[in-house]
Amino acid sequence: MNDNQKSLILNSSSQYPLPQGVKLSYGTAGFRADASILESTVFRVGILAALRSLKTQSLTGLMITASHNPVNDNGVKIADPSGGMLTQEWEPFADAIANSPTPQHLVQLIDEFVKKENIRFDGVRSAEILLGRDTRPSGESLLEAAKQGVYSIVGATATDMGILTTPQLHWMVRARNKGMKATELDYFEQLSSSFRCLVDLTPNQIKMNNTDDKLVVDGANGVGGEKLEVLKKMLNSMVIEVCNSGKEGGVLNEGVGADYVQKEKVVPRGFYLKDVGIRCASLDGDADRLVYFSVQSNNASNIDLVDGDKILSLFALFIKEQLSILKMEGDDHVDENYEARLGIVQTAYANGASTDYLKQLGLEVVFTPTGVKYLHEKAAEYDIGIYFEANGHGTILFSEGFLSWLDARNNELSSKSQGSEQQKAALRLLAVSNLINQAVGDALSGLLLVEAILQYKGWSIHNWSELYHDLPSRQLKVKVVDRTAVVTANAETVVVRPPLIQEAINVEVAKYPRGRSFIRPSGTEDVIRVYAEASIQEAADSLANSVAKLADQFLGFGNSG
Q1: Locate the Alpha-D-phosphohexomutase C-terminal domain: which residues (predicted)?
Q2: For residue 4, what are the contacts with CB-CB under 8 A and spacing of at least 6?
Q3: Nearest Cα to 409, choosing from 379, 383, 448?
Q4: Helix (H, G, I), strand (E, B) or coil at 434
């Protein structure tokens, strides 16, 4: 970096001093904390986004959100040129600059990193960053800090895209880097037109009865409810009622939202007996998670939860069916029956009943460690990769090779057998690839895909919920001296260190029908997380307690000895 660039960073960073005693770490969610201490961090992430843009010679994104956290929190994360999360290789640098104590130290760190990464400031393309924020009141001043960070890199430009869902910003970054138009209207038009295309391809004999035409959505009093109000005007075939849109004076994520509904398994605020039996969905605070539920008549607070595992199962079933139709006998072309590799990606937290169901369908199911980055990476190895976490975060990835084959196959079928079942299957798969957000999990696009598939199948939420019955499960936390003492393998399902604990866990698991349990270190605090499931709730609770005791004996403070 030349002296002019160094002094620019030095001067602007002195406007955003690091608060005393603050130490942050960049994870899957980026940086998150109480909004009042985040200005210097967001400023520095602005610099990071500009450097990432220079390094890749592509546009990057910066999103200000704390997703399902309380309204007083906020956060910041980067969208890489692919539309995915910041590459893991840059996370240590993100931590280093966020926690750098002085402007002088910050300049030194950046200078060293720029040399190591060979980042050129005289490249063909200047840094270009798209900025977005959710509806939190603190977002506006933090966005200003992000802009100042971007502008402290010579020639860098920042475009404020306004209030967005997190997936919208990721979608825009991906689209722009593919040379496509990427305004918010383009996003809405792509979702609504591909949804209409799927609905138009629903077999004529299948039409839902009237109650099933309506969907009630909990918008978590956040940005998702606001955007769904806009999107639903473009969907004349659907009746969507948005509750908790943030306009009624409710508080973001307070007693509402996908995270609350999935964890507590209760009705969000704003839902009553009038909603009994109706299909309901819940978005999280920045609309990157989605769960469905129905209110049970006997008790307005009880729900029948349809979580991310069941969304995954619905998507997998539909895509498998379309691939099967596409493979029906036809002309003898060498590549006609291209063997598409369909992969289902889960973590050890996926309910065992969902994994059994998917395997019974004859699907390839693989596991990764916990964390969206691992799931996304694995799904990208397939022609069609589907991943979801139980919390409702997930998406479908289509390989470029498969999409170009599918496009060619569709053109071939339209010239030879226009309107055939095979051609319709090809069109449905192409529509899914346009509807689903392939950059990240997106509650709005996921919701429309669920709705299109339920229409196609002629299913109510109850038919869907009955695909399989979840095994009862229990999760516990055990405080330990040092979480790094636990080393796991096989996608966190087996403990390698300390020795002997896995054998002891196996002994406990064997005592219960359909028993399964694992432990893993938390990514953020000195606790070990315990997961257990079994055929009945009492057994799952008992197994979780037994395994928690083992974790305490081997690793903890010995309280249970």
Answers
A1: 490-549
A2: 154
A3: 383
A4: helix
Distance between CA 493 and CA 497 in Å, rounded?
Answer: 12
Stretch (H or E) spanning 187? helix 184-200
What's phi and psi for 129, nearest 5 deg? -130, 135
d(CA 525, CA 479): 9
In eight-state DSSP terms, residue 440 is S
pLDDT digits (tens, 9 = 90+) for 406-415: 999 999 999 9
Contact 374, 351 (CB under 8 A): no
At residue 298 the predicted structure's pLDDT band, cuts being 50, 70 and 90, is low
Please tell me the distance from the alpha carbon of residue 171 to that of residue 175, in angstroms, as a whole number.
Answer: 6
CA 43, CA 150: separation in Å to the nearest integer? 8
| Cα(163)–Cα(176) distance, integer angstroms | 18
Between CA 379 and CA 369 the distance in angstroms is 13
Q: Where do the DSSP E strands lie in 262-363? A: 279-283, 290-295, 303-306, 342-346
Q: What is the token pair recorded at 54?
A: 């220079």
pLDDT tier for residue 124 given thresholds of 50, 70 and 90: confident
**Sheet containing 31-34: order of strands:** 31-34, 73-79, 60-64, 128-133, 157-163
Give the Cβ contact number of residue 427 at 10 Å. 19
Sign of CA pseudo-dihedral 256, 259, 261, 264: negative
> Using an 8 Å Cβ cutoff, are 266 and 303 in contact?
yes
- Whose tokens are 């999935």? That residue is 262
Assess whether 517 carries a catalytic annotation: no
Catalytic site residue from 67, 282, 354, 460: 67
pTM of the full structure: 0.94
Contact 248, 270 (CB under 8 A): yes
**Under a CB-based contact definition with an 8 Å cutoff, are residues 477 and 545 in contact?**
no
Residue 62, amino acid: L
